[in-house]
């Protein structure tokens, strides 16, 4: 695996540990200690591990600027779990979140999972999944609702495509973590809730009364047509 991972953190010890774990798994690494340095190297990365609190430019602004011109996968590091909802509210487009302190091994697993899901594969246009007025093309990784094109992050697309591939089937948050995030260990299921909320805001005509992504209270989520 030769993917290049850009690690952005102002703490040298954290950067060193994360890079050593990534290189151990065969990744190439790039390093940045502040937001402006991160922007100069972002174009050379296949995935970015981005700390929220950075000097010069914070992680939110860095993510926004990158998203304005690239869909490179981004894993955001936050100091508090509550900050995930803040990031959601700002809709900055990160593909995954981890709170500090974190396990470097788990971070590497998440990097591998994100790259696996965003790496693409040989698919034909006939693989398009249709649910109601939604058209989901896994080869082109595009989503349309009627004549409208909907822009999703890599993780949002993976979640929508997974649910749409088994219409009507209910999945628990734990199952979605396992199947979409590829986490084969206990994880924070709040990230599923966050991504479902973001996805509804983009694909639902009325996110408050969703037609497609339904909550099955006490169980999880399912996708069905109107």
CATH superfamily of the largest domain: Response regulator
- Determine the fraction of residues in helical runs and give it as a percent range: 25-40%
* Radius of gyration computed on alpha carbons: 17 Å
CATH top level of the largest domain is Alpha Beta
| Class inferred from helices and paired strands | alpha/beta
Strand order of the largest sheet: 2-1-3-4-5
CATH architecture identity of the largest domain: 3-Layer(aba) Sandwich
Assess the beta-strand content as a share of residues: 15-25%
| Tally of contiguous helical segments | 8
- CATH fold category name of the largest domain: Rossmann fold
Distance between the termini: 42 Å
Total number of strands: 12
Q: Could you give the order of the helices and strands?
A: EHEHEHEHEHEEEEHEHHEE
Apparent shape:
globular
Mean pLDDT: 85
Number of domains: 2
Please mark out the parts with pLDDT under 50 across 5 or more consecutive residues, or reply none.
Answer: 120-126
Compact overview of the structure:
The chain is of the alpha/beta class and 226 residues long. The chain is built from 8 helices and 12 strands.
């Amino acid at each position: 695996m030769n993917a290049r991972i850009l690690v952005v953190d102002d703490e040298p010890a954290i950067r060193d540990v994360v890079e050593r774990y990534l290189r151990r798994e065969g990744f190439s690494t790039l390093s940045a200690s502040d937001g402006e340095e991160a922007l100069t190297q972002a174009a050379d990365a296949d995935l970015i591990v981005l700390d929220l609190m950075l000097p010069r430019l914070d992680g939110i602004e860095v993510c926004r600027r990158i998203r304005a011109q690239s869909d490179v996968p981004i894993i955001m590091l936050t100091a508090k779990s509550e900050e995930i909802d803040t990031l959601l509210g700002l809709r900055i487009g990160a593909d995954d979140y981890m709170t500090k302190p974190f396990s470097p091994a788990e971070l590497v697993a998440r990097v591998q999972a994100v790259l696996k899901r965003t790496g693409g594969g040989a698919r034909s246009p006939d693989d398009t999944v249709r649910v109601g007025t939604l058209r989901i093309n896994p080869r082109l990784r595009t989503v349309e609702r009627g004549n409208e094109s909907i822009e999703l992050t890599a993780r949002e697309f993976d979640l929508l495509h997974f649910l749409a591939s088994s219409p009507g089937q209910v999945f628990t948050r734990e199952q979605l973590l396992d199947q979409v995030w590829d986490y084969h260990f206990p994880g924070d299921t709040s990230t599923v809730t966050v991504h479902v909320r973001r996805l509804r805001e983009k694909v639902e005509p009325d996110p408050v009364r969703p037609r497609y992504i339904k909550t099955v209270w006490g169980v999880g989520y399912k996708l069905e047509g109107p």
